[in-house]
Specification:
Layout lengths: L1 H21 L1 H4 L4 H5 L4 E7 L45 E7 H12 L12 E12 L9 H14 L19 E11 L1 E9 L6 H21 L2 E9 L3 E4 L1 H6 L9 H14 L5 E9 L6 H15 L5 E7 L8 H8 L6 E6 L5 H9 L4
Parallel strand pairs: 5-6, 5-8, 8-9, 9-10
Antiparallel strand pairs: 1-2, 3-4, 6-7
């Protein structure tokens, strides 16, 4: 019975994944997913799936509900509705829990993203517990059930207490064994994502919503590829500073824009905390393409070429459409840094463009 239930559950999970994969472009644009995000799982409303269920009751035609009645009798008081009744079927939505790892796997399979090969050759190590055997004592949460069951069964058979017609296994203290572990050093490749965003007056709530969605999927894919990962957030107008995640997505300024200020803060963070020989570094900058001057745009390119790009896995620039921004900065990057392999630029004019933007960022597997 348990084996059949497990098979049914696995089959159901495949159906759910197929639904998500088929509508992935739509799911990438669902802003409500961000509010459903938990520590390890995210709740997704999936249309078109009904859970099988039993319906109990008397199938006879005697009465309406539990009382007396005849076919055609009204049930309850007659009321007056507003407008005509609908003649179309409703759409059934079921909320299912999907782990962020499963969601990232679906994203990678559908977009045909190659797995990232971390640099640094696993220079960093982390402690973890590895189960290496069994012992005679320990907490009940670590009891090895199969071995305990076999020991009890063997003891009862040898002592003549086992009755195959009425099988009943009774555990004794001597039967119980528990998993044992030891702490080992596990090599791992750590990564840091440094998000930068223009929060000047030309970046409104619509632009920030695009950034939030894009950053969510960037984060999901990179966390699927690295065991240890950190995120840092930088906002800027004419000045830049590091903020927490909540402030990053909700702050609003009304000043001008000087993009080089964010690049300088990112440079300081890397120099102080993230040695490129030990960390996989990802820089992402979100802007509407507006900058204070051509001179500052040239300074941005100099900072990127001389200080940032040589030590990072990738610099991703995502330009979101704005009615107030010039949209010129992406052209400067193309003109000045066209020969750089670890720079990727994308344009996101609407939510539908996020699908292609994520694919462009990670298609090279860096």
């Amino acid at each position: 019975m348990l084996l059949q239930i497990d098979k049914d559950h696995q089959r159901f999970r495949k159906i759910v994944k197929g639904k998500i994969r088929g509508d992935l472009r739509k799911f990438l644009t669902r802003g409500e997913l961000l509010g459903r995000e938990g520590k390890k799982y995210i709740t997704i409303p999936v249309p078109g799936i009904d859970i099988p269920n039993f319906r109990y009751g008397d199938n006879s035609n005697a009465g309406v509900g539990s009382g007396d009645g005849k076919p055609g009798d009204n049930v309850g008081d007659a009321g007056e509705g507003i407008g005509p009744g609908g003649d179309e079927e409703g759409q059934h939505l079921m909320e299912v829990e999907v782990s962020l790892e499963e969601l990232a796997d679906i994203l990678g399979e559908e977009l045909r993203l190659p797995r990232i090969k971390p640099k640094g050759r696993h220079r960093l190590t982390a402690e973890r517990d590895r189960y290496s055997g069994v012992r005679r004592s320990g907490p009940e949460s670590l009891r090895h059930f199969k071995r305990t069951f076999r020991r009890a069964l063997r003891r009862q058979i040898m002592s003549g207490l086992y009755n195959p017609d009425r099988p009943r296994i009774i555990f004794e203290r001597a039967d119980k064994v528990y998993r044992s572990w030891k702490t080992v050093l596990s090599p791992q490749s750590n990564a840091v994502i440094i998000y930068m965003m223009d929060v000047s007056g030309s970046m409104g709530s619509e632009q920030k919503e695009l950034v939030r969605l894009e950053a969510f999927w960037i984060d999901a894919w990179l966390r699927r590829n690295y065991r240890g990962i950190e995120s840092r957030y930088i906002v800027h107008d004419v000045r830049a500073g590091e903020v927490d995640r909540e402030t990053f997505f909700h702050i609003r300024e009304d000043g001008g824009t000087r993009i080089s200020s964010a690049f300088r803060v990112a440079r300081e963070l890397i120099e102080q905390h993230y040695a490129p020989t030990e960390w996989n570094i990802y820089l992402f900058h979100f802007s509407d393409g507006d900058n204070s001057s051509e001179a500052d745009s040239r300074e941005c390119c100099a900072l990127l070429r001389e200080h940032l790009l040589p030590g990072v896995n990738m610099f991703g620039y995502c330009q979101v459409a704005s009615a107030y921004g010039s949209g010129h900065f992406i052209n400067v990057l193309h003109d000045q840094l066209a020969d750089v392999e670890n720079m990727v630029t994308t344009r996101v004019n609407a939510k539908d463009d996020i699908y292609d933007s994520i694919k462009a960022f990670f298609a090279a597997g860096k």
